[in-house]
Each structure stands twice: as C-alpha cells, then as structure tokens.
Amino acid sequence: MIHDTDRGDKNTPLLRIDAVSVRFGGIVALDGVSFDVRRGQICGLIGPNGAGKSTLFNCLSRLYECSAGRIEFDGHPLTRLPRHRMAGLGIGRTFQNLALFRTMTVRDNVLVGCHSKHHAGFLRNAFRLPGVAAIESQARARADQLIHFLDLDAVADREVADLPFGTQKRVELARALAAEPQLLLLDEPACGLNHEELESLGTLIRDIRDRLNVTVLLVEHHMSLVMGVSDKVVALNFGKKIAEGSPAEVRAHPEVIRAYLGEEAEAEAMA
Ligand SMILES: Nc1ncnc2c1ncn2[C@@H]1O[C@H](COP(=O)(O)OP(=O)(O)OP(=O)(O)O)[C@@H](O)[C@H]1O
C-alpha cells in the first residue's frame, strides 16, 4: 500500500545484534547477546521479568549505549550513529506505557509521525515556500491511509485522551507506522488489551508485515500471541540468550521451560 518494497540488500539481515552487552554499575542487563532479524520476519523476544528485553529495545532506539558489541541496521553500524540521526533512519517503536499527545486528535497524532519523516524544515514552513503544501498533502493522505488501516476512521477527529486504552494503542501503532519504518519495535503490545482486542492483534501484526512490508521485533509476555505470530523467537534470561529458533523449538527448550516455570516443571515436561 504505502511502502517501498525493495529497500536495502535482501541477503543482509535487516538487524544484526552482535555480542551486545549492557552494564549498569554492577548489573549486567545484557551479556553478549547475538541474533539476526531478517527482512520481512516477525521475531518474538521473550524472557522473564528482568531478562533484558527492554534494555535491548532501548539500545535499538539509542536510549541506552551498549557497553560492548555491535548493532547493525540495514548493514550500517547503529552503535556509532549520533542520536540525532536516529529519527528517520527507519526504526519505529511503540512503548509499554503509551507515548501519545493526549490532548491532540487521533489524526494529529498520526500526522506528527508523518512529519518526523518528511519535515520540510523550519524556514520553508515559516515562509510557506514551494514544496510545503505538497509535503503537507502527502502527509495527510498517508495519515488517512493508516487511520483506515488501523480501523480508526470513526475516531479520527476525537481527542486521544477520551478513547479506550486498546484504541489508544492502535493510535500509537499508526503513529509509529507513519514514519515509514523498515523495522517496528513493539513493546508488549498485548498488555492491557481485552480478549477481543487480543484476538485481532495477531492478525494486525501479520498485516503490518504482509501489507506494509515492515519487519517486526516484538517483546511480549503473552505467550500464545508471541508463539502464534512469530516466525522465530529469541529467549533471554538474566541478560543471556538461552534459546533461538521456531516457536515450537523455543517453547520446548529445557532452559526456556526452566526460566519460566522452574526446574520442577522442566522435569515434568521431560518425563
Ligand atoms: N536504567 C537502568 N538502570 C539500572 N538498571 C537497569 C536499568 N534498566 C534496566 N536495568 C536492569 O537491567 C536488568 C534488565 O532489565 P530489563 O528492563 O531490560 O528487563 P525486561 O526483560 O525488559 O523485564 P520486564 O519484562 O519486567 O520489562 C534488570 O536487572 C533491571 O533492573
């Protein structure tokens, strides 16, 4: 619908995490974690509380610096990029606790996302120089497409603060997609959703990949969602990668069972 279909070399992983470690004083939040995410993949990242999932997301958004290791995005080292170059690079993100402009309408929130990619520059905007109107109308068209894609037409002109939590989460998704990311980082998208919303979330994540050509890295505690939607799953525990593979492989991995359920459950599962 909206995205370029062929960006970058198809054989290079879109995201390469290579021996990444993050330390906070004496705490090792990530300890030599490596894995790749291929273009067009939905990759689930799981692990018990404190495993290091958010720390990894924060490294990908450059909110945290890696203490060691390297992250490559689309073949380029992300770890050396200045923070101000992150906007427009092609990594979109949603947050566990929504990060929306609550007193703005749905449409304006999505437009903010469009402008983070196609800003016309302060002087151009201030003097309404040629090109500004075209950029503005492209942004509006794109916002309308995404509002429709996320089934937000009926609330497009309502203030975000007045909407149910599940709807606000879809607004956040629309805004992240408005910047035309190649990679979308979803931080616990199922958290706080009701049963019905949960059911449609899996389909929506697949649609984002299939119809918008966006690669997805998903942190999620809701196991049936992450196992149902992911092409591959990476499991962390105490900052280390303990398993990587298909959902079925990771679900059956003894270290994953031990991390989630304790050693007794592992013995039961093996029996
Ligand atoms: N800014 C920080 N300062 C100090 N310690 C931190 C910081 N951020 C994370 N940590 C620590 O790093 C470890 C990994 O935390 P992280 O939040 O990445 O885990 P998580 O897998 O996302 O957990 P959850 O599922 O509960 O969100 C934890 O021990 C946490 O306390």
UniProtKB/TrEMBL annotation:
This is ABC transporter ATP-binding protein. GO terms for cellular component: plasma membrane. SMART domains: AAA. Keywords: ATP-binding, Cell membrane, Membrane, Nucleotide-binding, Transport. The keyword Membrane applies. CDD domains: ABC_Mj1267_LivG_branched. Gene3D superfamilies: P-loop containing nucleotide triphosphate hydrolases. GO terms for molecular function: ATP binding; ATP hydrolysis activity. It comes from Acidovorax cavernicola. PROSITE patterns: ABC_TRANSPORTER_2 (PS50893). Residues 15-263 form the ABC transporter domain.
